[in-house]
Amino acid sequence: xxxxxxxxxxxxxxxxxxxxxxxxxxxxxxxxxxxxxxxxxxxxxxxxxxxxxxxxxxxxxxxxxxxxxxxxxxxxxxxxxxxxxxxxxxxxxxxxxxxxxxxxxxxxxxxxxxxxxxxxxxxxxxxxxxxxxxxxxxxxxxxxxxxxxxxxxxxxxxxxxxxxxxxxxxxxxxxxxxxxxxxxxxxxxxxxxxxxxxxxxxxxxxxxxxxxxxxxxxxxxxxxxxxxxxxxxxxxxxxxxxxxxxxxxxxxxxxxxxxxxxxxxxxxxxxxx
Length: 273
Ligand SMILES: NC(=O)c1ccc[n+]([C@@H]2O[C@H](COP(=O)([O-])OP(=O)(O)OC[C@H]3O[C@@H](n4cnc5c(N)ncnc54)[C@H](OP(=O)(O)O)[C@@H]3O)[C@@H](O)[C@H]2O)c1
Known about the structure:
By secondary structure, the protein is an alpha/beta fold. The chain is built from twelve helices and eight strands. An eight-stranded mixed β-sheet has the order 3-2-1-4-5-6-7-8, sandwiched between helices. Helix 4 packs parallel to helix 5 and helix 7 (169-178) crosses helix 12. The chain is elongated and about 70 Å long. The two termini are 35 Å apart. The site of NADP nicotinamide-adenine-dinucleotide phosphate (NAP) has 27 residues, from helix 1 and helix 4.
C-alpha cells in the first residue's frame, strides 16, 4: 500500500484511519493534516499515525491524498495543494458529497485542460466507524488500475464497496446507503416509542428494538434468499405479522420509502449546483 495523507481529521477520516490500521496498514505510512490540534493529536496518540497542521507537508509525503474536509472547503484545499507542490502521480480521493470530479480537477489543474489529476469520488456512510460501511466509488478516466486498487483497499478497510460507471450514480448511493442509516434509526425510534406506550421501560424498549433490528439484519446477511422471501417465511397468512405488514402496505410504505429516497437525490443534486 502507498503512503496516505488525510486532509481533515474529523469523523470520516477517523473512521477510515481506524479501519486501515486495523487492517494492518503501517500507521507511519499514514499522515493526518488538520488545523486544530486536538483531533490530529488524538489520532496520532491512539493509532501511531503521523500528524501535521500543514496540508502541503502531508500531501508531499503521500501518493494517495484523501480529502476529508467539508464540501465547501474541498476546492480551496485542492487549489492550495496544487499551487505548492508537484502533484504528478498522486491520486486524490474525495469523500465530499456534492463536489464533482470536474470541480476537483479544475481546482487541481492550475488552469490546464490536459494532464488532469486522477480523482476518485467515494460516498461512504457512518457505519464505516465500525468497519460496517457501504461505499460507492467513481473514478475519473485518469485513474490507473493500481490507483483503483488503492482506493478500493481504503474503502474495503471500513466495509464493503462498489464501483459506479457514471458519476451521477454517487447521488443514488447517497439515497440507498449514505443517508440510509438514519432511515433505519427513524424506524427504530418509532418502534421504540410505541414499545414505551405498551408499558416497557426505556431500557427494555431500546433492547427489544435494537436486538430485533440486529437479528433481522444478520438474517439477511447470513441468507442469500431474496429479502422478500425472508419476510414471507415469517408472515403466515392471517397471522399477527401478516396483519402488521398489510397495515404497512395499506398506509403506503413503498411510496413513503420511494419519496424519501428521491428527496435525498434531489437534495444532493441541489447541493452540487
Ligand atoms: N460523516 C459522514 O457520515 C459522511 C458520510 C459521507 C461523506 N462524508 C463527507 O466527509 C467529509 C468530512 O465529513 P466529517 O463528517 O468527517 O466532517 P468533520 O468531522 O467536520 O471533519 C472535517 C475536518 O476538516 C477539518 N478542516 C477544516 N478546514 C480544513 C482545511 N482547510 N484543511 C484541513 N482540514 C480542515 C476540520 O478541522 P477543525 O475541526 O479543526 O476545523 C475537521 O476536523 C465531508 O465532505 C462529508 O461530506 C461524511
